[in-house]
Amino acid sequence: AGAGPGVMGPAPPGAAGDPEVSEPEVMEPTLEGTGEEGKKVSSKKRTLAGSPVEGLLQPVKLSRAELYKEPTNEELNRLRETESLFHSSLLRLQLEELLKEVRLSEKKKKRIDAFLREINQRILKVPSIPEIEADRQTWLKLGSSPLQQCFTVKGRFRFLPPVQVMVVGSYLLGTCIRPDINVDVALTMPREILQDKDGLNQRYFRKRALYLAHLAHHLAQDPLFGSVRFSYSGGCHLKPSLLLRPQGKDEHLVTVRLHPCPPPDFFRPCRLLPTKNNVRSAWYRGQSPPGDEPPTPHYNTWVLQDTALESHVQLLSAVLGLSPGLKDGVALLKVWLRQRELDKGLGGFSGFLISMLVTFLVSTRKIHTTMSGYQVLRSVLQFLATTDLTVNGISLCLSSDPSLPALADFHQAFPVVFLDSSGYLNLCADVTASTYHQVQHEARLSMALLDSKADDGFQLLLMTPKPMIRAFDHILHLRPLSRLQAACHRLKLWPELQDHGGDYVTAALGPLTTLLEQGLGSRLHLLAHSRPPVPEWDISQDPPKHRDTGALTLGLLLRPEGLTSVLEMGPEADQPEAADFRQFWGSRSELRRFQDGTIREAVVWEAASMAQKRLIPQQVVTHLLALHADIPDTCVHYVGGFLDALIQGLKETSSTGEEALAAAVRCYDDLSRLLWGLEGLPLTVSAVQGIHPVLRYTEVFPPTPVWPAYSFYQRLRERASLVPRPDKPCPAYVEPMTVVCHLEGSGQWPQDAEAVRRVRAAFQLRLAEILMQQHGLQCRTTATHTDVLKDGFVFRVRVAYQREPQILREMRSPEGMISLRDTPASLRLERDTKQLPLLTSALHGLQQQHPAFSGVARLAKRWVRAQLLGEGFSNESLDLVAAALFLQPEPFFPPSSPQVGFLRFLYLVSTFDWKNSPLIVNLNSELTVEEQVEIHSSFLAARAQLPVMVIITPQDRKSSLWTQDGPSAQILQQLMVLAAEALPILEKQLMDPWGPGDIRTVFRPPLDIYDVLIHLSPRHIPRHRQAVDSPAASFCRGLFSEPRPSLLMPVLGYDPPQFYLAQLREAFGDLALFFYDQHGGQVIGVLWKPTSFQPQPFKASSTKGRMVVSQGGELVMVPNVEAILEDFAILGEGLVQNVEARSERWAV
Amino acid sequence: MVARKRKRAAREAGESLPSPPGYSAIPIKFSEKQQASHYLYVREHRVREGTKSAWPQQRTLFVLNVPPYCTEECLSRLLSPCGSIQSVELQEKPDLAESPKEPTSKFFHPKPVPGFQVAHVVFRKPGAVSAALALRGPLLVSTESHPVKTGVQKWISEYADSVLDPEALRVEVDTFMEAYDKKIAEEEAKAKEEEGVPDEEGWVKVTRRGRRSVLPRTEAASLRVLEREKRKRARKELLNFYAWQPRESKMEHLAQLRRKFEEDKQRIELMRAQRKFRPY
């Protein structure tokens, strides 16, 4: 049951125990090793799938008879239905499966029903208490208080069993989704409990809380319940609800939430209009306001919500009740919302809101009851994407009674308006404008996705979670939350506090987001905030305070084009708006004279590099918050640039290398201009194309100009070159940047491969000669390339002849027919001179469109290499994976910061189904949807011949050029495992409001899986300083920091660890795998191949490094491990510090 | 660890090392300092009757498992006590063609990185082979008198070697091209001579140098011709002419849908198995 090629992914449950399964070359995945902390390695091990067939899609084979039999009516109906109601049959099947997964099963429903009946009986049996004074003593007697402050309530309280116990909400409608099944139960309090004027000054809410407290007190003693706890219903701190869960194994099956509500018609709706005041200032603040009492729209809404529970459920069941399509649609929409974390906390876009929205669309005939779930989903998204409820509110109320309040009144009081059928209650009262804009943004993205007819729309739309940290470019946490109290005072939000019953977080949220949106202006695409749901608490504990709900987290989606500017231009100085501008920006605003002669108010931010410009929003946010909201920068934790440290150069803290790369590219442009204009070459230069990663901005550490100090080297004077000296540390690593130089066509070229190589060499020589003569550039030539030193950068110019791959392919059959057959040499040449230049220029273009591409690609490569897996993946393949994040960002928005791009890279790598789908990187959008479908199907047909990781580009539609030589299935599997482990760790660090801790944790590789560790001496590691944990001190590498003209060619491409690895792989490649981080790694991990350690019979062709031993009277060959371990040290004489054999697995 | 040491001690003390039939084993170490040794497996070079071999029979020693740091010079020094050596040839793997390599240009065919190799050692006298077979060893690759460079030392000297002399390269290119041009000129002259001259059966060879251009004899060209024919035929065909044609195309559509449906079902099945429908 060996793991065949193309096998990866978690094993089916049965295969894990099979001892043979994990045999060949399988690396045991481990938890992300944190090195220093010495964290215990988790025992979580996954093995590869059992057989090559498992988990792999096979081309479908159907017999002719089956394909062409007469269709039945039923089949025709289904086919027709699929065509008209769903997008495709695949989508239909997928949606059906998803619904099956989230729906409640009948069996569980029965158990829940039984539980509900029990609850009903218990509640009605709770004993009454006689009327008492509702003061502090009462609370104490009850032993618990679900309200934050237990003031004395004016009036009296008594407990009587509810007059009605009624299930409301999604459970009744059949639209609730797993997991977290909640059943909402409304308890109608008897009229005797309440008095007139209870709507005033929170009296109703306090009585409601007392009622619950008494219920809780009694129900807690009942053995029926596993837990009895409080929580805030919908996050509103004045409205606690009681949570009941069954005892025993059903504890996680269901949560029943009890909501007390007033008897019908107790409150007069006209007293609860958004313009009315029901919390008197005299009572709340102890003083009367100078003018009118401020209206309390939110308070009024919360009261109204309790009165409308029953009518809402009636309306919903009337509309949704009989239509399975609508129910499906609501369930799908709930999944959609939940994946986007939109339904959480106070003001979330809850499932109830979405059901009401569906009802509204049914009433306006936008949705028909016969529609399928998919169509409902589509219509609702379409509606959300195209209407703006912040400007034009909607109403379910059909009556045109003039006494009803006007929509304008609601718009005055609330940011988003959606009235229920009574015309008094705004269902979206707590939804903030930014939440609604986020919903709109998501709906627009989803609609674009559905319209693009992508094959995996289902997956992206409904199955991909979009946590805040992965969806937004930058995140900021405001903590501690108590600071917002001061902010409220500074922003003069007393009426809002009065309205929200003292909830300063909610009161401050709206004004703060508006402030930041205004300040960020053109840099911002979308600002969103998350409200973490208030945790539930035990009935014996005090309820959590506002400040206990963690941190307020804001997400910024940035606009890349706005990020480049360091200037906020204000109005001209003599305009009246100038005062507003000055007031808004405070001391940062200054008068400036501009080139067109105007004198304007302006704000200039200090930012020199791209990395700093990306972080201007941080400056804006901290400045504005401190200025207007009295929130000092110590209370703002801005998460945007923590990962920058990993792609910053040596001693460089202000830039993430974009500038250095641009400098190298400029130098390359100069050189290519020189090459174009060369005189004296027999053929003129027709094209100059870069193929080095630097020239597509994806080299992890950009090159710096080199100025060698001669005394550090041996000098080869006659060749004008420097050579490393054995008695000095290894000199700095200089990698020449490869450039392909095409010559114009000519009939003079020979038609023989060997001769072409000689002619090319002659061109290389001539090129060097002319560059030296005409431009005084130092050159060095070999048969295949010319190295050119220009302004401290070294370029490797390769002359190319267009027809050479063709010549290498030509084969002459015995009959004299010339046919073309690919050979390894022709493919390599074609790749280097044809495809690679195309790819490089395409990615260069991508960088111009998306300035964050460079950072993302480099972080991704850095991480893969830091995990010692860099050798398995070609440079280009990782660049393309990074490019895919920008070209197919769905369901996200293209990243504008390296941080979010890197997180999505980890997510993509760990979740992509490499086995069954190609990663299509649609460079320049050259592939149409039909072509992509075509690619998918030809991929499945040819799966066995393709590499394990398949990346398709418009230039390379079949063969996946860049992954041909690796990774192997095992390496890819290891990468997927590591990425899956790293992602949650890193996300947790970044979402931690009190700081990320050690951001390099996920970049340190786990070393305990290796059999042998070869420790290298830093003296001979030229890139030692690039290590993840950069050493405080390293060796001198023989460079001046100041520019000096150099007449001698510096040492090029001299990297002892790479030479050493090449030797090791050549000598012991059959026996072991070698892993190394080329960016300053100090250790080489060696993994023995278990298959090679099986004793084998003697064979002349496989004696390498083995010896003959007699085992049980038979002569067999086994690896000569002891000698090999000594060879490790011999081959790396001077470089190797010590060889540490760590496992006894190889003992024979 | 102890057990392994004991094993090794036993091995070293034992008179004859285990070796595969026909071969004898000679321990070989890098230098005195090393504890464990590799083993060269050597036998006389023999080929089956009738097959040609470039190496002389009886005088050639065939060596397996030559460690990477052991160069041709080393091997020749180590085996010279058995008799004077004519040549040593290292190869990556036992080659069936078994021919000594042609001398190659160091500019155009750089030496590959060595791994474990096989060697053919040709002695001047036949007796030396049996002397070599009886060697006890252990052979030492690097000694004080003849140190062998490895590691950093080796890479530095290799780097120095890689800095080429452009003049030498130019000379090599020029000589090669001269020879090549001469060869081409000869071929061309020959072709010109044969142009239009019928062979003994009277056939005249048509070449591309003729007066009228002819189709080049390449696969691509012949494929192009076939393609053109096919297109021509397709153009002539009538659609929806016979009654069975629309019927068949409808059936074809249905079959297409069915195939797609089956494919989708399979996909769903797979996703279900991987629990891909758990949204969170």
From TrEMBL, chain A:
Subcellular locations according to the entry: Chromosome; Nucleus, Nucleolus
Limits of the Nrap protein domain: 183-319, 326-464, 470-629, 644-848, 850-1005, 1007-1139
Membership in a protein family: Belongs to the NRAP family.
Role this protein plays: Part of the small subunit (SSU) processome, first precursor of the small eukaryotic ribosomal subunit. During the assembly of the SSU processome in the nucleolus, many ribosome biogenesis factors, an RNA chaperone and ribosomal proteins associate with the nascent pre-rRNA and work in concert to generate RNA folding, modifications, rearrangements and cleavage as well as targeted degradation of pre-ribosomal RNA by the RNA exosome.
Keywords: Chromosome, Nucleus, RNA-binding
Gene Ontology terms, MF aspect: RNA binding
Lineage of the organism: Eukaryota, Metazoa, Chordata, Craniata, Vertebrata
Region listing for Disordered, in residue ranges: 1-52
One GO cellular component term noted in the UniProt record for this chain: CURI complex
InterPro entries, alphabetized: NOL6/Upt22, Nrap_D1, Nrap_D2, Nrap_D3, Nrap_D4, Nrap_D5, Nrap_D6
Protein name: Nucleolar protein 6
UniProt subunit comment: Part of the small subunit (SSU) processome, composed of more than 70 proteins and the RNA chaperone small nucleolar RNA (snoRNA) U3. Interacts with RRP7A; required for NOL6 localization to nucleolus.
GO biological process: ribosomal small subunit biogenesis; rRNA processing; tRNA export from nucleus
Organism annotation: Loxodonta africana
UniProtKB/TrEMBL annotation, chain B:
GO molecular function, one term: RNA binding
Stored InterPro entries: Nucleotide-bd_a/b_plait_sf, RBD_domain_sf, RRM_Rrp7, RRP7, RRP7_C, Rrp7A_RRM
One Pfam match: RRM_Rrp7
GO cellular component terms, semicolon-separated: cell junction; centrosome; cilium; CURI complex; cytoplasm; nucleoplasm; small-subunit processome; UTP-C complex
Disordered: region residues: 1-24
Domain Rrp7 RRM-like N-terminal: 22-79
Occurrences of domain Ribosomal RNA-processing protein 7 C-terminal (ranges): 162-280
Localization per record: Cell projection, Cilium; Cytoplasm, Cytoskeleton, Microtubule organizing center, Centrosome; Nucleus, Nucleolus
Keyword Hydrolase assigned: no
One GO-annotated biological process of the protein: blastocyst formation
Family, as annotated: Belongs to the RRP7 family.
Stated name of the protein: Ribosomal RNA-processing protein 7 homolog A
Source species: Loxodonta africana (African elephant)
The organism's taxonomic lineage, starting at the top: Eukaryota, Metazoa, Chordata, Craniata, Vertebrata
